[in-house]
Structures are given as structure tokens and as C-alpha cells.
Design brief:
Blueprint: E1 4-5, E2 9-11, E3 16-19, E4 30-32, H1 36-44, H2 51-67, H3 72-83, H4 90-105, H5 109-135, E5 143-146, H6 161-170, E6 177-181, H7 188-200, E7 204-207, H8 212-217, E8 223-226, E9 230-231, E10 237-240, H9 243-252, E11 257-260, H10 284-287, E12 288-291, E13 295-298, E14 311-314, E15 321-323, E16 328-329, H11 331-335, H12 338-341
Parallel strand pairs: 5-6, 5-8, 6-7, 8-11, 11-15
Antiparallel strand pairs: 1-2, 2-3, 3-4, 9-10, 10-14, 12-13, 15-16
The structure holds 5-S-methyl-1-O-phosphono-5-thio-D-ribulose (MRU).
């Protein structure tokens, strides 16, 4: 495989390295995750995260093992293990399935290498196209509320909703302001998006998740733009838990609510959001804070009962527009099979 490099992911010709996202922004540590067990652990623990990037990382891991000569049977077992590392982001399954198809039709290392390289470079291109489509929706002077982290850390390219914000800013809309939900429980907004915004020099303000509605009421927010982990055919979509709250609050305040994602996040097998599997994570993430770079603090009673769904589903009726790499769809487009028309 050729060398690959993005903000938080590298293949140096031999080793696969990730910028450990559980340590950011306190520490910038590159971890060697070439070994499949290390990659699976990194995906499960969110050291590498974001729907597009986990697909890319898993694909490169699988193909590196093929290059190193593991048997077809072991490769197929590894494909299953990678595919199951996290259940909600469909990009992971889609990337592995593309490689499984190559294994079934043309089991040649060179064909697998071509596919892994394609998955990586395609994600860069998809992000660039989403950024172009999304940036057009942003007016100079807008306050834009976003959730979780959807930037360069979460993809091989410039990101999805953050990519759109970044392009709007870099193409001259210098008076935008980004409001960042901290994104409990694992704080992807407070740690990762706040770091990316600072690195990019885009004006931003961090808020706790429960502060979004008051900012909307006070007129600070003109648009909400979020990412997604899986889009169903009726336009319902799963994203980091807390997205649904924002969509409801945006609707109440008549604020446009956009979701941005590549075609690799569209699941043609999910008719509606009810079909999307939602990852339930361990209770300790909610009983306190358990993020390596932040530390481990438990403030709740040790045995308190906890629910910890990592994602929620936002119904299509709350969405103003779906910003895909091909085009921006509205509800009428969705009803006319617009998502299917965006598939290659
Ligand atoms: O659990 P995470 O941090 O992987 O969740 C990520 C999100 O929910 C993102 O919004 C989504 O994957 C889109 S990233 C471009």
C-alpha cells in the first residue's frame, strides 16, 4: 500500500499510526495500531473515531494483514471482527464489505490494495464535495451550532459539517461563529472540535449540551449543522446522542437544521431510523468522566443504574437539508428517492 496521511491517521509504508483521540487535546500521541487487536481496541475505545475514519482505518488494517501474508480464512475472520467493532456507523461495514467483495471476486493482494487506497482517497474527495455543498448554505455572520466532532479528526479529509464550516470561513465568510456542544459523555465537542476550531483559527465558543436552546432563543444560532453515522432511506439519521435534542430545539425556534455526510453513510438496507442499531456503551462513562486525556473521575454513586446510548436517531421531519457529497437534498427530494440517486 502507498503511504497515507490525514490529520489523525497515517500509514507509513509499514505501520498504521493513529493520533490517539482519547488523549487530545492534552497530549498528541501517535499510537502504532498495525496489529489487528490494537486496531479493534482503538476503534472500540474511540482512540480512532468518526464514522468515515473508522471505515478507512479498518480497511487499511485488513489490507495490511493481507500484504503481510495472512491466509484468506484468517482475513475473512478479521474482516468480521473489524466489522463488529462498533455497530452504528455504517461506513465501517460498508468499507469492510467492499473489501470482502474483492476477496470473493478477485482474491489478489494488488486488488485489495487498490480498494483500500481508493477508500482512503475517496473519503478525502467526498469530504471536499460535502464542504462545497455545505459552505453555500452558510451566510457571513451566521452563528452555527455543531455537535460532537465531524472534522479532519473524524475523516480522511476536511470533515463533513466542520468541512463545510471551514470552507465557508476560508472562502471569506470571516464573521461566522461556531458554537460547540461539549457532547457528553465522551466530550468530543469540548475536546476535539474545540481543538480543531482553534487550530483552524475559526471563532468559536464552547457550551454545555443543555445550553443550546437558550442560545437559540437569544438569537445567537442561525443554523445547526451536524454529522451522521447512518442515514436511513426515509431521511431519518443516527448521530452522536444529543443530536435529536438539537433538532427539536431548532424546530421550535425555526432555525434551519442540516445534516452532512457522504454517500458511504447512507444505508440502503435501512428503511427508517427504527432499523438503525444503536450502540450502548458502559455505564462508567456516564457515572463520571472516563477519558484518558482528561482522567477518571466518578461523581455518581458507584452502583447507580445508567443508560448510555452512544447515538440517537433524528426523524427526517426535523431536518431542513441533507448535505451529501453529490448535492443538498430537501424533504421532497428524500420522498422522491433522492438518497438512492446519490449512491454511485
Ligand atoms: O462515537 P463517535 O465519536 O465516533 O461519534 C461520531 C459522530 O457521531 C459523528 O458526528 C459522526 O461519526 C460523523 S463524523 C464525520
Amino acid at each position: 500500500m502507498r503511504k497515507l496521511e490525514s490529520l489523525s491517521f497515517r500509514f507509513d509504508g509499514e505501520k498504521i499510526l493513529i493520533l490517539d483521540q482519547t488523549l487530545l487535546p492534552q497530549q498528541k500521541t501517535w499510537l502504532d495500531v498495525t496489529q489487528p487487536e490494537a486496531m479493534i481496541e482503538a476503534i472500540k475505545s474511540l482512540r480512532v473515531r468518526g464514522a468515515p475514519l473508522i471505515g478507512v482505518a479498518a480497511a487499511v488494517c485488513l489490507v495490511r494483514q493481507a500484504e503481510l501474508g495472512i491466509t484468506k480464512k484468517d482475513l475473512l475472520n478479521l474482516a468480521d471482527a473489524l466489522r463488529e467493532a462498533r455497530p452504528t456507523a455504517v461506513n465501517l461495514m460498508a468499507a469492510i464489505d467492499r473489501l470482502r467483495e474483492v476477496m470473493q471476486n478477485n482474491f489478489q493482494i494488488s486488488a485489495l490494495v487498490n480498494m483500500a487506497e481508493k477508500i482512503f482517497s475517496e473519503d478525502i474527495e467526498l469530504c471536499a464535495n460535502i464542504a462545497k455543498n455545505g459552505a453555500r448554505l452558510i451566510q457571513n455572520g451566521d452563528g452555527i451550532l455543531t455537535h460532537c466532532n465531524t472534522g479532519g479528526l473524524a475523516t480522511a479529509g476536511v470533515g463533513t459539517s466542520i468541512g463545510a464550516i471551514r470552507l465557508a470561513y476560508e472562502s471569506g465568510k470571516k464573521n461566522i461563529h461556531v458554537y460547540i456542544d461539549e457532547t457528553r459523555p465522551l466530550l468530543q465537542g469540548g475536546r476535539l472540535t474545540a481543538w480543531e476550531m482553534a487550530e483552524l483559527g475559526i471563532p468559536h465558543t464552547l457550551i454545555c449540551d443543555n445550553m443550546a436552546p437558550i442560545l437559540m432563543r437569544e438569537g445567537f444560532v442561525q443554523k445547526v449543522i451536524v454529522g451522521c453515522d447512518r442515514i436511513a432511506m426515509n431521511g431519518d439519521f443516527a448521530n452522536k446522542v444529543g443530536t435529536y435534542n438539537l433538532a427539536i430545539a431548532a424546530k421550535y425556534h425555526s432555525i434551519p437544521f442540516y445534516v452532512a455526510g457522504p454517500y458511504t453513510t447512507v444505508d440502503v438496507h435501512c428503511a427508517s431510523g427504527a432499523d438503525i442499531p444503536i450502540e450502548e456503551r458502559p455505564g462508567h462513562e456516564v457515572r463520571g468522566v472516563f477519558v484518558s486525556g482528561v482522567g477518571q473521575v466518578q461523581w455518581s454513586p458507584a452502583n447507580v443504574s445508567v443508560r448510555n446510548p452512544a447515538f440517537d436517531v433524528t426523524p427526517a421531519e426535523l431536518v431542513t437539508g441533507w448535505v451529501l457529497d453529490k448535492k443538498v437534498l430537501n424533504m421532497a427530494d428524500i420522498k422522491n428517492g433522492g438518497l438512492l440517486a446519490c449512491m454511485p
